[in-house]
Amino acid sequence: MTDPARPAGSAADPSPDVPDAAATAEAADPRMLELAESLFEAARSGDIELLRSYLDAGVPVSLTNAAGDSLLMLAAYHGHAGLAALLVERGADVNTLNDRGQSPLAGAVFKGYADVVRVLVAAGADADSGNPSARATAQYFARPELLELL
């Protein structure tokens, strides 16, 4: 029920003008969803040229998948330092956490990708952000060479 003392769209009264997330996903153009998935796959596989062309065309560098994984998270987790550097250069936030509270830096540490760790640390990644943090991950998996980079 709407409270007449509250403006429509306030926290206590969801506005009918704001679309429901599930309804938005159902109404999304299947071609756009396919394109987004191809971009996430390009980040996983390190296809720097494909991603560069789409970023040049206006795809947001902050694009995330349904799990909250950014293009940078996927590139970092799969060991693509060159792509990670491109995404950082284009404005990717090195400290954005996915829906599980994981950072790109912790992902790179977990997988043991020192070159990606260097890129992210140089760009200001917080070694203590996320759960588990990159620092805690390096300690847990006994990776002193990565711990030194943090």
Automatic annotation (TrEMBL):
Name of this chain's protein: Ankyrin repeat domain-containing protein
Span list, region Disordered: 1-23
Species assigned in the record: Arthrobacter jiangjiafuii
Keywords: ANK repeat, Repeat
Name of one Pfam family that matches: Ank_2
InterPro entries per UniProt: Ankyrin_rpt (IPR002110), Ankyrin_rpt-contain_sf (IPR036770)
UniProt cross-references to PROSITE patterns, sorted A to Z: ANK_REP_REGION (PS50297), ANK_REPEAT (PS50088)
Domain of life: Bacteria
